[in-house]
Amino acid sequence: MENIIEIKGIRKVYRVGSEKVVALDNIDLSIGKGEICCLLGTSGSGKSTLLNLMAGLEKPSRGEIIIKNIHVEKLDEKRLVLFRQKYIGFVFQSYNLLPSLTALENVGLPLAFKGIPRRIRDKKSKQMLHSVGLTSHNNRKPSQMSGGQQQRVGIARAFVGNPEIVFADEPTGNLDSKTTSEVMNLITDIARKSNQTLIIVTHDTNIAKYADRIIHILDGNIEKIEAVTPLGAITN
Amino acid sequence: MKSFDLIIMGLKNLFRRKTRTILTVLGVVIGTAAIVVMVSLGLGMNESFDEQLKQMGSLNIINVTKYRNTPEGAAVNSKEIVLDEVAIANIGAIKGVQAVTPVMESYVKLVSGKYLAYTPVLGIDAGVMKDFDYSAGEGRLLQEGDTDNIVIGSIIPQNFFNPKNQYSMMGGPNQKPPVNVMTDKLQITFDMMYGEKQRPGQGGTENTKPPKLYKVRAAGVLVQSNDWQKNQYIFMDITHLQKLIKDANKAQEQGGNKGMGGIFGNADTSKGYERLMVMVKNIKDVDGVQKKIDEMGYGTNSLGDLRKSMQKQAQTIQIVLGSIGAISLLISALGITNTMIMSIYERTREIGVMKVLGCKLNNIRQLFLFEAGVIGFFGGLAGVLLSLLASFILNAVGKGIMNSGNMGMGMGMGGGSRISVIPPWLAALSIVFAIFIGLVSGFSPARRAMKLSALEAIKTE
């Protein structure tokens, strides 16, 4: 299987005052195309940092991140924006919908950033909202929706541009257990259906079970990699 | 991102925080209105100055005299200055000059039968009268070769009175003049006592011969204008006027007033003329032409001088007024900046999300600049509307005050002049300026928004 993400010798050191904090020590990791991968670790383990590095939101202190044969760590701000536009979708823990926009407009936002005309955008967004199970919420503002509904909108927004990679940072962190399983089923289903790579960051072992492969992170290093499905075993 | 989407998004953001947006816009409204009203007062002042100047004569005319004031104010006597035909030719050759005429002034009594009228007379070059902005209401202007033809100022016909009838002077401007200057016989005399009752005790003049009367014909009457000179003077050819004055002087001397030569005017042309009048074609060239004539060594003056000093005065007032307006606009600019910075703090997360979702950095900057510009635009637009209203009220109220003031003083100065003038360019310019202020105020917040770290913005608290 072809690897869509290659991480080689990544180290990330933060400076807090005069002290150095090692967030990531030395990470090597490959993630295959269409794989659902979970970064599992406790708070402060460095799992979020790893995600941020992959998304280009932070620069590593050392090492290489190659996504779709692009050295992400070498891109400047402008190119990173274009890179994210093209390949990356994002699901946030706190949904992060724009409060002034309706559900439909929120979903269409990544398409708007690409310069896609409104008519096409709205059509795609509607389809997307439909596939996350929201049919009558097109014109609702985020403040008029429940957390689960908002996260569905967030998921629709992440997948609407059909990106090859979707990052989800604690996507169910603010949801109750019932909604959590709904959302997790939804997100993994969509990713599997269109062979998209999904990387989930969580501290919850129950969530991790939805993935093909679980990468346990402890104190900035990969503790162990656990294959859940046959697909995960292949990449391993 | 399409500009249309950007605009919609910006407007939505502004609309979301209505109160704050309205308050910020209100700041710009007040600032813009302050500046526009202040400038309009200055423009109104200029307009009324110009109107007043027009009553004093044409702004295009430069007077050239022999007496020259140096910048220090002392008369220069080192060189005799002669205003002769050569001078006329030289001045006439300056670019922008339309016509030059020598000028001679005297005072005569216009006689028609038993009616008399006192009037100043202006001798000018008959051939160039039409170049000096005169226009005839009846008949024609002076022409080359006119001698005893005169042109009469528009209100002269009303000045005729019958010295035998004391009440005839009360006629007022609306009564039909007793003399039809175009058809009735006209004569002029330089003797101011002509036709009046001889007062007793004027020993010196008892032996004088009867004053000489010179026959003239009216070639035309000028149209009424704002220029008092065109209303109050009679005009005739300068050479003929000189001849008449010479003759009258001679007669006076023979009549026993020897040694008092030239009491009716200096008709001696051997030393040139007293004064020249120069007509400049374009009012913009007046300054330049006047400077050139100055450089030739002649003394000059024009209404432009007065205009300049009036404008300078007006300018000073305008600057003071404008600064007051500028201060309020500056404050409103700070208001815009403040609003935009507040907005960034509020929307930090939003901006971060937009960045993570692939919004181009330029788009973020454009969004914030657009929002600031819209605040400026609406503020400017409302400000202009407000100042149009203020200007209307000022003019309506001010006109009443000014008119009653004029009536009290008994003069009709500046009849139609307005206190506040807002020409279209001022309205347009101030809206553009308000937008500009908005953009400038929004520039640094927009930059700040663009540079926000996406990661910091989306960090879960």
TrEMBL record, chain A:
CDD domains: ABC_MJ0796_LolCDE_FtsE
Domain of life: Bacteria
Pfam families: ABC_tran
SUPFAM superfamilies: P-loop containing nucleoside triphosphate hydrolases
Gene Ontology MF term list: ATP binding; ATP hydrolysis activity; transmembrane transporter activity
Gene3D superfamilies, per the entry: P-loop containing nucleotide triphosphate hydrolases
GO annotations of cellular component type: membrane protein complex
Domain ABC transporter residues, every copy: 5-235
Key words of the record: ATP-binding, Nucleotide-binding, Transport
Keyword Lipoprotein: no
Keyword Methyltransferase carried by entry: no
InterPro entries linked to this entry: AAA+_ATPase, ABC_transporter-like_ATP-bd, ABC_transporter-like_CS, MacB-like_ATP-bd, P-loop_NTPase
Similarity-based family: Belongs to the ABC transporter superfamily.
Stated name of the protein: ABC transporter ATP-binding protein YtrE
This protein's encoding gene: ytrE
From TrEMBL, chain B:
Entry membrane topology: Multi-pass membrane protein
Protein keywords: Cell membrane, Membrane, Transmembrane, Transmembrane helix
InterPro entries referenced in this protein's UniProt entry, alphabetically: ABC3_permease_C, MacB_PCD, Macrolide_Exporter_MacB
Keyword Membrane (UniProt): yes
GO cellular component terms, A-Z: plasma membrane
Primary residence: membrane
Pfam family, one: MacB_PCD
Residue span, MacB-like periplasmic core domain: 21-295
UniProt xrefs under PANTHER family: ABC TRANSPORTER PERMEASE YTRF, MEMBRANE COMPONENT OF TRANSPORTER-RELATED
Protein's name according to its UniProt entry: ABC transporter permease YtrF
Organism: Ruminiclostridium hungatei
Gene name for this UniProt entry: ytrF_1
